[in-house]
Design a protein that fits this description.
Blueprint: E1 2-5, H1 11-22, E2 26-31, E3 47-51, E4 69-72, H2 83-97, E5 105-111, H3 120-132, E6 138-144, E7 147-148, H4 153-164, E8 167-170, E9 177-178, E10 181-182, H5 183-193, E11 202-206, E12 212-213, H6 214-224, E13 230-233, H7 239-249, H8 254-264, H9 274-279, H10 286-298, E14 331-338, H11 342-349, H12 362-374, E15 395-396, E16 399-405, E17 410-415, E18 421-430, E19 433-442, H13 444-470
Parallel strand pairs: 1-2, 1-4, 2-3, 4-5, 5-6, 6-11, 7-10, 8-13
Antiparallel strand pairs: 9-12, 14-19, 15-16, 16-17, 17-18, 18-19
Helix pairs in contact: 1-5, 2-3, 4-6, 6-10, 7-8
Length: 480
C-alpha cells in the first residue's frame, strides 16, 4: 500500500516510518524543509520525499492521487501564539487536498479530550479532529496523553525535574491524574489501526495500564533511577509562575512550558481500553516504559527527539533560508589552524556541544546559556540527541544544524539564542587546515553594540576552541 506520512521529521513520524516500511508499505514522506529530512540509507529505496506546507494550498497539489492511506501527525503547539487557527487551517487544507486522491483511510494522533473544560492546546487538537473527520474517507483518531520514550518532551521534562531537583516545591496541578503510554505502544496502535475496518470512523483513547498523578510519575521515575526525592505541593503557584518554574528547571521553551502547564491542569485518563482487544496490543506499564527508554539512551539508540523539533526553540523557519552565510553588513571572526590528525579533528567537531562541551571556556558558554534563559531563550539545556552523530535540523545546545557533511569536513550551525541579530558558526576543513568562522549579522545599533561588547571574549573562547579541536591529545607516559 502507498502511505502518505505527514510529520515525517517529527518525534512520532521518525519512529513510525521504519515500522511502515517493515510492514511492506511504500511511504510518501511529507516535509516542509527537505534539508531537514535525513532517513537512514536502508529506508531510502522504499520512500518518496514530498515537499509541502499544509498552510500553502498550492503545494498540496503535489500529493499523489494513488495514495491508499495517510497519517496526520502535525502539531504547531509552540511555534506560534496563534497555533489554534494555524492547526485548523492546516487540517482543512489537508482534507480538501485528499479529495483529489483515492485515499481510503486517514489516521490522526490527538490528545485525550474527555473533560468538559479543555486547555487551548487540547481544544485545538479536538478541532483538528473535527475538521479531518469531515473528509470523504474512513477516519480514525487515536487520543493519547503523556507519551513516555527516549527523546519525548514528556520524558525529558520529567527527567530534568527528577534528576536536577532533590527537593521540589511544585504547583497543585501535580495532583492531576493522567494515563501515560510508552512510545513503542503508540507506534503499535498507529501501525495496526491503519486499514483495520474495526477502527473506521471512530475515536479511541490509548494509554498504559497505570493511572497516576504527575507527582506519582515523578516519584516513580526517581525509584527507577534509584534517587531519593521529596515533593511538596503548594497552592499558590499561578499558571504563569508554574510556566516559569518549568521553563527554568527543564529544557523546554517558555511557549511550550505555558501550553503544557495549561494542559496539565486537565485530567487525561482513558474512557476505556477497547482498542487493546481490537488490535491485540497490551501496553507496558509506566515503569517498564521508563526502563525501555533508558535502555535506548544508554545504547545511543534514540531515533528521534523533541529537542530537534523547531518547537524546542519556538522558531519557525526553513533551513534553506539560512544555509548561505551572508557577508554584507556582517561581523566575522575567522581563525585558521593546521590539523595534527584529521580523523581526530573531525570526530571532535562531530562531538561538540552537549555533554562534551565546547572544548574551551565552558564556564563562559554555560554563563551565556544562563543569560539566554533569563531572556526567554533556549539556553544550553537541550544538549544533543546523539553524542557523535549529527544530522541537518538537529539541535546542539542553543544552535541548529544547517549543514553537516562529515566526509567534506564541514559543519554549519545557526544560533537560536536570543540575539539582536543573527549568528552562524562554521567549521570547515581545507587542505589539512581547519577554518573556524563566527558570523554575526547585527540588527540595528543594539546588534553592533552587542558585537563589540562580546568581542573581547572571542579571542579567548574561539582561539582556545580551535586549538583544542585541531590538537592531537597528548598520551601520558606510564611511570616506570
Amino acid at each position: 500500500m502507498k502511505i502518505l506520512l505527514t510529520g515525517s521529521t517529527g518525534y512520532i513520524g521518525k519512529r513510525l516510518l521504519p515500522v511502515l516500511i517493515e510492514l511492506g508499505h511504500e511511504v510518501v514522506c511529507c516535509v516542509r524543509d527537505v534539508k531537514r529530512f535525513n532517513p537512514p540509507e536502508s529506508l531510502k529505496e522504499s520512500i518518496t520525499v514530498l515537499k509541502l506546507d499544509l498552510l500553502d494550498e498550492k503545494s498540496l497539489e503535489s500529493i499523489p492521487e494513488d495514495i491508499d492511506g495517510a497519517f496526520y501527525l502535525v502539531h504547531s503547539m509552540s511555534s506560534s501564539g496563534d497555533y489554534e487557527s494555524l492547526e485548523e487551517t492546516s487540517a482543512i487544507n489537508f482534507r480538501n487536498a485528499l479529495k483529489r486522491t483515492k485515499v481510503n483511510h486517514v489516521v490522526y494522533l490527538s490528545g485525550i479530550v474527555n473533560e468538559t473544560e479543555l486547555s487551548k492546546h487540547l481544544t485545538s487538537r479536538k478541532n483538528v479532529e473535527l475538521e479531518l473527520s469531515k473528509g470523504e474517507y474512513n477516519f480514525t483518531t487515536l487520543r493519547a496523553g503523556i507519551i513516555i520514550g527516549s527523546g519525548s518532551a514528556s520524558f525529558e521534562i520529567i527527567r530534568d525535574l527528577v534528576e536536577k531537583l532533590p527537593v521540589m516545591v511544585t504547583p497543585k496541578w501535580l495532583h492531576t491524574k493522567c494515563q501515560p503510554i510508552g512510545i513503542s505502544d503508540v507506534i503499535a496502535f498507529l501501525s495496526k489501526s491503519l486499514f483495520n475496518p474495526k477502527t473506521f470512523n471512530q475515536n479511541f483513547d490509548i494509554g498504559g495500564p497505570d493511572i497516576l498523578s504527575y507527582k506519582n510519575m515523578l516519584l516513580d521515575f526517581a525509584k527507577v533511577r534509584n534517587l531519593k526525592r521529596k515533593i511538596f505541593v503548594v497552592p499558590i503557584m499561578t499558571p504563569k509562575l508554574s510556566s516559569y518554574w518549568l521553563y527554568f528547571v527543564t529544557s523546554t521553551s517558555y511557549k511550550l512550558a505555558t501550553s503544557l502547564v495549561h494542559s496539565m491542569k486537565i485530567e487525561v485518563v482513558c474512557r476505556d481500553n477497547r482498542l487493546n482487544t481490537i488490535l491485540e496490543v497490551e501496553p507496558l506499564n509506566y515503569k517498564e516504559s521508563l526502563k525501555r527508554a533508558f535502555s535506548k539512551i544508554e545504547n545511543n539508540e534514540i531515533l528521534s527527539s523533541w529537542k530537534d523539533a523547531y518547537s524546542s526553540s519556538g522558531l519557525n523557519f526553513n533551513i534553506s533560508e539560512f544555509i548561505k552565510v551572508p557577508s554584507f553588513g556582517c561581523f566575522k571572526d575567522t581563525r585558521t589552524r593546521p590539523i595534527e590528525d584529521l580523523n581526530i579533528c573531525i570526530n571532535k567537531i562531530w562531538s561538540i556541544g552537549g555533554k562534551t562541551g565546547w572544548y574551551y571556556g565552558n564556564l563562559l558558554w554555560k554563563a551565556r546559556g544562563f543569560i539566554d534563559k533569563l531572556f526567554g531563550g533556549v539556553g544550553l539545556r537541550r544538549g544533543r540527541t546523539h553524542p557523535s552523530a549529527i544530522n541537518v535540523g538537529d539541535a546542539i545546545d542553543f544552535w541548529r544544524v544547517l549543514y553537516a557533511n562529515k566526509k567534506e569536513g564541514r559543519l554549519l550551525l545557526f544560533a537560536e539564542m536570543k540575539l539582536p541579530g543573527e549568528a552562524w558558526l562554521e567549521f570547515k576543513v581545507v587542505n589539512d587546515k581547519l577554518i573556524q568562522t563566527a558570523t554575526f549579522r547585527p540588527l540595528g545599533l543594539a546588534g553592533r553594540l552587542y558585537w563589540y561588547a562580546v568581542f573581547p571574549f572571542h579571542g579567548f573562547i574561539f582561539n582556545g576552541m580551535i586549538k583544542q579541536i585541531t590538537t592531537e591529545p597528548k598520551i601520558k607516559k606510564a611511570n616506570g
